[in-house]
User: What shape does this take?
Amino acid sequence: MKRRELMKWMALSGAAATAPGWVWAMGEGQNPGERLIVLFLRGGADGLTLAPPLGDPAYFDLRPTLSVSESDALALDGYFGLHPAAGSIKTLFDAGELAMIQAAGTTTAERSHFEAQAIMEQGIDPLDLSTGDGWLGRYLAERNGGSPLSAVALDVAVPLSMAGLGSALALGEIDQFSLQLDTRTRLLLTEIYAQDPLLEQTANAVFDASQALAPVQAYAGGEGYPAGPLGTALSDAARLIKSGSGLKAAAINTGGWDTHESQSEEISGLIRGLGDALLAFRNDLGEAWASTTVLIKTEFGRRAYENASLGTDHGHGGVMLVAGGGVNGGQVYGNWPGLNASALSDGQDLAVTTDYRQVIAEMLSVRFGQSDLSNILGGWQPGPWQGLFSPPGQAGSLSTLAGPMPSAATEQAFKLPHQLDLGGLERLSSLGRRVARGIRPVR
Assistant: This one.
């Protein structure tokens, strides 16, 4: 049913009286503009294994067992390579649609998963005071959502990065999202929730989303996605985009990247699953890939040297990836600090030379036209752009990219920690107060 037909039916049936506002806000054929997919690799992904610095002799000295050999690595730019399981990532890289930023992360080291993730999702540095909301929520709050599906988490909970945006919804798997209400029941519940201003906005958002999801659920998923939560989430994101739901931003988590033991056995499947899911997403979107940007980040990298359990421990500098039709890909960005002893952060980690907020700032400015970043990034000022992105409308024609066959391996589902809620931010507030008094936190 087209929008014109829907409006005629609503007028005749009286359904217009109870129609949510988003039905009238979305014009027929409306261009939703740029879309953002934020993918968080929970656990601390090892950038030195995903994109090994083959041209740095210290890399092989620090990792005599875990280093990726030059003969096994996939060639990138003559200095960096790719893990042999990253064939699909290389396909996107070679097509100029994926870029990597090495030695990226928070300026100040923070090796706690909980605090490092919370800090990065708020868009701050470990020495800053907690904001209580997220950088993505602050950005989206400045945009007119229009649709109840404009900001979603394809997970069991809304992430901290979207905190502060009352309309953000956690959908989980789209095909499992269901809320069957007749008009009378909805009106009754709406009246009840209206008595609680804290719940009213969320309740209305859920009611509206349940109606808006019907055409999305009727839209068939694409092909080629690997089995597992990440493949499902990216397939659902593609359905939201292709069905014209009005999606502006989606947050996705994928876990299992905390590789303290037997790293070689665990990380190959994770890297392969990540690449295969991204490539399937790109091919599924077709021309919509030109107006879609995927930001991939992790809370920190791994320690430069391997441990006695053939794994790696929590480190500092890591890797970020960006992909999309507007990405100036085929390059590894960032200033490589080196892995020799004098260059290591705290004598043990890859140093950070690109603040993760620099990538976010350039993306929001160039791709999404956000000229004022002061509120979104808490007053932090970015440096010169690195040239990661091209403005909208400059992507060429897109054709399907061939890549390795999708892996049958299933990545580990990210399980939201019980303490990852807004209440847990009190710890960060306490940390910020201690720093403000000149007391450095114990690490």
